[in-house]
Amino acid sequence: MNFIEVADIDLIYGDRSGVEDGTATLALSKTNLSVDRNEFIALVGPSGCGKSTLLKLISGLVKSSQGSVCVDGEIVTKPLKNVGMAFQNATLLPWRNIRDNVLLPLEIVEPYRSEPKSELKRARAEELLATVGLSEFGNRMPWQLSGGMQQRAQLCRALIHSPSILLLDEPFGALDAFTREELWGVLQSLWMRRKCTVVLVTHELREAVFLCDTVHIMSARPGRVIASRSIPLPRPRTLEMTFQAAFVDLVHECRHHISLGKTS
Amino acid sequence: MNRAKVERLAPWITALIFLMLWWLVVKIFHIENFVLPSPIEAFAALYNFRYPLMIHGLATLGTTLAGFALAVLFGLVLGILVGSFRLVYSSLYPLLIGFNSVPKAALVPVLVIWFGVGTIPAIITAFLLSFFPVVVNVATGFATIEPELLDVLRVLGATRRDMIMKIGIPRSLPYFFASLKIAITLSFVGTVIAEIIAGNNGIGNVMLIASSNFNVPLVFAALIVVGVMGVGMYAIFALLETRFTGWSVRGGGLEHAVGG
Fold first, then answer.
1. Cβ within 8 Å, pair A107-B166
2. Is the pLDDT reported for residue A50 higher than 80?
3. Quick check: B170 and A85 CB within 8 A?
4. Per-residue pLDDT at B257 exceeds 70
5. CA–CA distance from A250 to each of A38, A238, A245, A257, A259 (Å)?
6. B257 to chain A: which residues are within 8 Å by CB?
7. What is the ipTM of this complex?
8. Domains along chain A?
9. Cis peptide before B39, with omega less than 30 degrees from 0?
10. Which of A26, B89, B125, B257 gives B194 a disulfide partner, CB atoms 3.0 to 4.6 angstroms apart?
11. Residue of chain A whose Cα is closest to the Cα of B152
């Protein structure tokens, strides 16, 4: 049994009876997805295909209309605990400095929650901030940081409690190309240092191929996974590799699947 | 004179100009002092009746603060409920708006029937007039939390209490303080209305007695007292606001965003 197992999921926004007359939307239809423990996967597809919805299904934030989601052998019926999440907006708390923003999950997740606020936790946050190149910025307020730096901080917040699952919803979507590519490297090294299962939603195929073990391609709405491509490139991957034939071919192959999915 | 100095002096100059215009209007049109006294007569009355005005002013201040405190407490709790639960919002909001549209002056006689003449109807009127902005603002602060942020907390296993304490309350503080500035001034209005209609002390009562004696300068002196107290309380809450919610006002030119 795989770590995450999505089986024959239907998801309807609205009433099932409304799908015919258009008052409800069939977002996902007969979707299947399997993810191994500590695997890094991407969900790619045309916009509106239900990538983010599938992400929310895995986390338990959204309930499926039909079918089941299993995580670690248990059926997901309510929001999972101990998951890390990051979004396109950094969603940092503007009244907390960067370090206290990163420490937020430790105030909520057990067993850290019951532990007193200690130097140990603080050191943990500082260490994580250092790995993403923010060691000097713990005392700064979020608005004092650039968009890219806020995203780094957000990644730290998503990882500080060592979650078993990290869910990323277009985390680099609002950044410029240079910053984005730089953060691919940051994310890869974070993941290689402390492995966890990562589901990345993105519309950037180069990003998916660069970061992931497997890229799952979804069709236009109603979305489902129409192709899965494993990425056998060795790690750590470098930006140099993105210009090599093997990488470019993989990106092309994924793009081909997407264009097939649009017409079907 | 530098810009900061000009800005500090500006409200005083405006007040002075206003008083001069008032004085000019009275002089030019030869208005009798039982219709509209000149500011000089009003300030003379302020001086002559300084002790009763102080005693009744303090009574009004006390009543106002009591009504205001009730409004803040009630408004905060109701605002949190309305802002964080959809059902409470949809079931309560129309009623709240309807209630707020009722002229509170019309309620004072009813309150007198229930509680008798005196301070209690005034406290309740002050409360009724000032709780609404607190509710609306706190609810807005809660209702406009980014849904992604709530998702982040939910998948950490956060309880509703966690979300209110860690996100909701700090986030709605700027809204809350903004509402306090409105609520405190409305609270004065409520108190004085109730005192005029059915009080046995307070500034409103002074105004009622003075106007029935055609001592219009004293009426205006009383108005000045209320106005000054209102501005004073407003200033106090504005100060508290900058103390507690400095984070919501960016920059201040102290530090600049760093690139990267």
1. yes
2. yes
3. no
4. no
5. 22, 15, 9, 11, 15
6. 143-146
7. 0.83
8. 1-82+165-172+189-264 (3.40.50.300), 85-163 (no CATH)
9. no
10. B125
11. A85
Q: What is the distance between the alpha carbons of residues A224 and A216, in angstroms, rounded to a whole number?
A: 10
The reply to whether A92 touches chain B by the CB within 8 Å rule is no
**Cα A252 from Cα A240, distance rounded (Å):** 17
Does any CB of chain B come closer than 8 Å to the CB of residue A141? yes
Q: Which helix (H) or strand (E) holds A225?
A: strand A225-230
pLDDT digits (tens, 9 = 90+) for A83-110: 899 998 888 999 999 999 999 999 988 8
Q: Which amino acid is at B89?
A: Y
**A221 SS3 class:** coil
Q: What are phi and psi of B249, to 5 degrees?
A: -105, 110
Report CA-CA distances (Å) from A220 to A25, A45, A133, A217, B142: 13, 7, 38, 10, 35
The whole-number pLDDT of residue A73 equals 84
**And the tokens for A158?**
């998503």
Distance from CA of A83 to the nearest CA of B (A): 5
Residue B147: is the preceding peptide bond cis (ω within 30°)?
Answer: no
- Per-residue H/E/C for A205-220: HHHHHHHCCEEEEECC
Closest residue on chain B to A106 (Cα): B156
Domains parsed from chain B with CATH numbers: 36-244 (1.10.3720.10)
Q: Which residues of A154-192 are buried (b: 16+ CB within 10 A; e: fewer)?
A: bbbbbbbbebbbbbbbbbbbbbeeebbbbbbebbbebbe
What is the per-residue pLDDT across B59-102, written as a single tens digit (0 to 9) for each?
A: 999 999 999 999 999 999 999 999 888 898 889 888 988 988 98
> What pTM was estimated for this model as a whole?
0.79
Q: Is A94 on the interface with B (CB under 8 A)?
A: yes
Residue of A nearest to B244 (CA): A95
